[in-house]
C-alpha cells in the first residue's frame, strides 16, 4: 500500500523553521545523550569495564534505532486519525522518549542503562520516522532541496547543542531532561503550528502483494551496478572509520590524553565537537560548489576521504590535547567535504533515475550499518590493544574507503 499526499504550499517558511527546531532537538539527543551522557553513566556504573560496556550499549541501542525507524514509518503511514497521520507518532514518540530518558538519567547499573537507552532510541526513531515523512507530505518537490539543507544545518547545530548540554550537566539528571524536553517541545510546536493531512486529503494506492524476498531483491538491486556498489562500499568504510573514533572520544580524553588544567573530558568532547563542526560546515560550503564547478567528484571524494583518514595520524603521533584539537579540525575538513561531494557522486551513478529514492535508501544502509558495528569493533580493539591501535585501524579502514572510489568509472 502506498499513500500519496499533495504537499501543502502555504506557509513553507514557517514549516522549515519548525523542521529546523525539531531536527535540532532530535539530533541533540543523539549527540549529547548517545555520546557523553551515556558514556559517563556507564563509567560511573562500572569503571573497570567501561569501554566494553559502552560499546555494547551503543551497539545494541543502535539496533533498536535501526529496527524501529522503518516500523515507525509504516505505522504512521497506516494511521487514520482525525488528528492526522504523523501527529500521534510525533507527540507519542517524543513523550515516550522523554520518559525513557528520565529513567536513563536515574539508572545506576549497566543493565538498566542498556534497557532505558534502547527504549529511548526506539521511541526517538518513532518520532524521527514521522518527522522525516513531513517533507514528502507537505513540501513541494521544487523546495525539497531547501528542506534537506535545513536538516543538514540542524544536524551541525545539534552536535554543538547536545555536547554543550552534556558538558554542563554530565553526571546529573538535568541533561537528560533538558534534551528530552527539547524533543517534546518541538513535537508540540509541530502539532500546534503545522497542519497534518487528515483522512480524505491523501490518496491510498493498493499495490500487488509480493513476497518479502522479491521486495528485498528489488530494494538491493542497485548493488548489482558496479559503480554504485563501489560508492556504497566506500561510504560504509568511511562511516565505520569515523564512528570508531567519534563514539569513544570521551574515553580517549579520559584515559589516553592529558587534559589541560581546568578542562574536564566531557567539556573537552564539547570543545572538540565545536571545532569539528565549524571546520566541517566551512569545508562543505566550499567543497561542494567547487566540485560542481570543476566537475571532478571522484577526485574530491578520494582526496577528502584520504584527508579524513590520515588526520588520525595526528593523535596517533601526538596524543596530546593540542593534537586532538588539530585532528578535529583536519578531520572536519576532510569528512565535511567528503559527505558533501560523495552524496553528489552517488546521485551520478544511480542505475535508474526512476528508482532514485529507493536506491539512495540502499545507500543509507552504508550510513546506518557501520554505526551499529563501530562500537563493537572499536571496543574490542581498545580492550585488546589500546587507543593507538584504534587510531591505526581507523586509518587503514578510511584509506581503504578512499581507494574504492578509484574503481568508479562513470564519473571523473
UniProtKB/TrEMBL annotation:
Keywords, in A-Z order: Membrane, Transmembrane, Transmembrane helix
Main location, first listed in the record: membrane
Entry's localization field: Cell membrane
The keyword Ribonucleoprotein is annotated on this UniProt entry: no
Ranges for domain Major facilitator superfamily (MFS) profile: 9-412
Topology in the lipid bilayer: Multi-pass membrane protein
Transmembrane segments: 12-33, 53-75, 87-104, 110-134, 146-167, 173-193, 228-248, 268-287, 299-318, 324-350, 362-382, 388-406
Domain of life where this protein originates: Bacteria
Pfam families attached to this UniProt entry: MFS_1
This protein's record includes keyword Membrane: yes
UniProt xrefs under InterPro entries: MFS, MFS_dom, MFS_trans_sf
Name under which the protein is recorded: MFS transporter
